[in-house]
Amino acid sequence: MKLKPIPNPDPDLDQPDLSYIYSFLHSSLHHQMNNDTAKKRRRKTADDDGPPGKQGKMKDLKGIITTLSLLEQQEKEDLDRASNDDKSFAEEKQKQTTKTKAMVEHYSDLQGYYSDVEESETVNRKKSRNAATAAVAAAAAVDASEKGAKPGGSGSGHQRRLWVKDRSKAWWDECNQPDFPEEEFKKAFRMGKATFDLICDELNSAIAKEDTTLRNAIPVRQRVAVCLWRLATGDPLRLVSKRFGLGISTCHKLVLEVCSAIRTVLMPKYLNWPEDGVLRKVKEEFESFSGIPNVVGSMYTTHIPIIAPKISVAAYFNKRHTERNQKTSYSITVQGVVNPKGVFTDVCIGWPGSMPDDQVLEKSALHQRAGNGLLKGVWIVGGSGYPLLDWVLVPYTQQHLTWTQHAFNEKIGEIQNVSKDAFARLKGRWLCLQKRTEVKLQDLPVVLGACCVLHNICELRNEEIDPDLRFELVDDEMVPEIAVRSQSSKKARDAIAHNLLHHGLAGTSFL
User: Fold this and answer.
1) Where would I find the DDE Tnp4 domain in this sequence (predicted)?
2) Is residue 242 pLDDT above 50, yes or no?
């Protein structure tokens, strides 16, 4: 019998050396068989019982044979198990390979499909553009052929744009004529033709556009007219669109562009703090009719109604206007300082309507300049809603005023009326300030700033306002919690009040 060593399925496990066992068993069996053969030759007979030694040897032989059989059977089982494991692993690997190939083929087909679709869409877009270009070229050729009979018509005629909606511009064309009545023009745009032309010349470089192959640019005069009409009437954009023969979105864009140009180009020239030489004249004019020295401006804060904003609604809620009008009101503030002629020298625009006048003043650039010492030794006159500061002069607000205090309040009220009248003319000229506008909250300061600049231009050029357009201001003033914030200013105010009364400059209305 030939024995083979059983392979070890797991080399990491410590197992006995089976080949050594097989060799040992084989040599033992062979030696035993030789001994038995020699004994048979010496013995002639043998009984069934035999000697005890022979029976024990036979039992040992049977045990060895049984052990060898078991070892061979175990070897076959191990080989079969290893073969089955290798076969299962090979089948699993084959399945994974087949699945991977199928997925790669699927994605390749899908990528090819999308590439075909994209190529098809590109071809369709090119065809559409070519068709549109051909249509425009054909229309231009027809237009040119129709104008060919006119002198110079074939080369200088404007191409008709098929996609531009045809709107009537008759009203503006009539207003733009030289023989259009001056009064009618002023009623429409709140200024005369000369002032209108001045504004157009100033803004020409900032708002002029060039003609393109798609459309002709809107002239500068029409751009300015759209903006002024919108500010002057406060009409909705759809009415402005019909009036000037332009699209609604175009009108809205023109208003913002012109207002931005006014703020950028004209505000530094027509709305600025006066220089020292001009300030001396301002002091003299205020003192000439009030008797109060060193006054350089009259200050007032008004509210502009707005639509309820989407954010910070409570901040823009105007409680005082709501209670008085019995209607929910939202607003933003405009603080302005004017000279004796009612021309704005400083404005602060855009703080929420819930803020009182003293808080708006504290957040303004004017307050910062005063803190840097630029208003030292001069007065800006304000109403009872402002506190008494080193540079802000306000009337007495306590009860049971003396005759001297009454006389002072009378004179300081004359200075305060200068700024009130200026704001009344501002809102009377530009009706958009009286209505809840369609302009977004973030764009509103630009529009309000443009209105202030246009007001200054009209005032400097003596453009009188129509009496029918006069507006009555209704702005509630709240006395601040701390009305007196400077003891030195308190003494200075008492001295001014004493001089006004005892020098006969005030208090005559009580006599």
Assistant:
1) 300-456
2) yes
